[in-house]
Design brief:
about 325 residues; mainly beta; 2 domains; 11-stranded antiparallel β-sheet; globular
Length: about 325
């Protein structure tokens, strides 16, 4: 056999034995468990656990399987699909009132759980016990109180009083507002969710005071920001969720109280409306959310991000129900 024929047959053999299709993605489930310390059973906030795989900058949320137990024990799971098994991970736990907790997992070990019944993809599971998670108390300003006042035109003013016990000032970078309006108890299956992109000019004002007193205030100049977000409308129970992002640059002086005043209009401007989770090409009617009016929202949560990257956000709640 000539050398040319031999090389030709070898090339054909390589082509025939090499798969022409990429490897099918597999399904992975990572389950984490741990015990938070300290933990207050009466705490309203819940921990948020994120996993970053193989040095990725995009975190994946590990969803709590149940409420945190009175002794601080929790479990969470993250289910995802990809082609290559992750090897390392970084775990981040955030809880208002504490610094962000971070731990590296240098080697993830997965075991086979067989093929999925529907996707036929191979499934792999990994369980990691984090043990005791000692949380460090945050040095961020604490929320003293939240007061709401409503004008005759329906506009609202939130006075969020923060106490900065540090000697140095703290820079606030962004405020995220989430609000909800309860719907009915009705249940139905699978209609498309209506999403309304909204925006409006909001006014933010800061007022400082001497240490330990709310009486003497030094008012700064009001400034307007363009807040953007969306209102989600559930056609089943008519529940509405509002989320807004308020970019801001506010410094809280050290060792004193500061009042952040947020003036919201009675109505948000609707910029765009779409349906999601459905195959309809229709545009939802703005009347579903009363053309952007906010007077029926009853529960508000303000998450305040600071320049301290290792700290959880400052969270302030207000509810009229």
């Amino acid at each position: 056999m000539s050398r040319y024929v031999f090389l030709h047959l070898a090339a054909l053999l390589t082509i025939c034995t090499t798969s022409a299709w990429p490897e099918s993605p597999s399904q992975y489930r990572v389950t984490l468990s741990g015990r938070l310390r300290p933990w207050d059973v009466h705490r309203a906030a819940v921990p948020v656990v994120h996993i970053l795989f193989d040095g990725s900058a995009t975190p994946q949320e590990c969803l709590l399987n149940r409420d945190v137990r009175p002794d601080g024990l929790f479990t969470c799971s993250d289910l995802f699909t990809q082609q290559v098994s992750p090897r390392i991970a970084r775990i981040e736990v955030t809880l208002p009132g504490f610094k962000r907790y971070s731990r590296n997992i240098p080697g993830l070990e997965f075991r086979s759980a067989g093929a999925g019944p529907l996707l036929k993809a191979q499934r792999y599971t990994s369980s990691v016990d984090l043990g005791i998670i000692d949380l460090t108390t945050s040095q961020l300003p604490q929320v003293a109180q939240v007061i709401l006042s409503t004008g005759a035109d329906g506009a609202r003013r939130f006075d969020i009083t923060l106490r900065n016990s540090l000697k140095n000032e703290v820079l606030l970078k962004e405020v995220t507002l989430e609000a909800s309006r309860l719907g009915t108890a009705e249940h139905c299956c699978c209609p498309p969710m209506a999403i309304f992109a909204v925006s409006s000019a909001l006014v933010i004002n800061t007022a400082g005071s001497v240490t330990g007193s709310f009486e003497e205030r030094l008012h700064s100049k009001d400034y307007r920001i363009e807040a953007k977000g969306e209102i989600d409308f559930d056609p089943c129970n008519h529940m509405r969720l509002l989320s807004l992002t308020l970019p801001t640059e506010v410094s809280l002086p050290g060792d004193q109280f500061t009042i952040i005043q947020i003036l919201m209009p009675a109505r948000m401007r609707i910029d765009k409306a779409t349906f999601v989770n459905g195959k309809t090409s229709e545009v939802p009617n703005a009347k579903l959310v009363d053309n952007g009016e906010l007077d029926h929202f009853t529960s508000f949560t303000f998450s305040i991000r600071t320049s301290a990257d290792d700290e959880a956000m400052i969270v302030a709640h207000y509810s009229s129900k």
